[in-house]
Structure to design on (111 residues):
């Protein structure tokens, strides 16, 4: 099984932005929703976003209005644009597609 591969994490100051990318297996990519989750240093796993097969996205209240999830079926990729980042957004961010989890990418929000 080909697992998703995330990239784009890093260190950013509060109020800053980052854009995560997730490349998935090409076969059947457009037929499945994509999900983003995160796990912070002191928190459990938290759902961050869902992008359905039509490209419509949903978010929990904690990130709604700050995060924007999207997908590009031609590139079998998904994206998570994160704006106005806060210290409590610090976490490892995971992409999930077809029940396959990526290895995660670290996002650290700190001054």
């Amino acid at each position: 099984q080909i697992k998703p591969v995330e990239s784009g994490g890093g260190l950013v100051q509060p109020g800053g932005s980052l854009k995560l990318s997730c490349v998935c297996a090409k076969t059947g990519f457009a037929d499945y929703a994509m999900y983003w989750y995160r796990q912070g240093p002191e928190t459990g796993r938290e759902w961050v976003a869902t992008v359905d097969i039509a490209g419509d996205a949903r978010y929990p209240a904690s990130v709604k209005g700050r995060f924007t999830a999207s997908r590009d079926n031609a590139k079998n990729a998904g994206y998570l644009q994160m704006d106005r980042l806060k210290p409590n957004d610090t976490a490892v961010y995971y992409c999930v597609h077809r029940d396959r989890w990526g290895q995660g990418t670290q996002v650290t929000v700190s001054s």
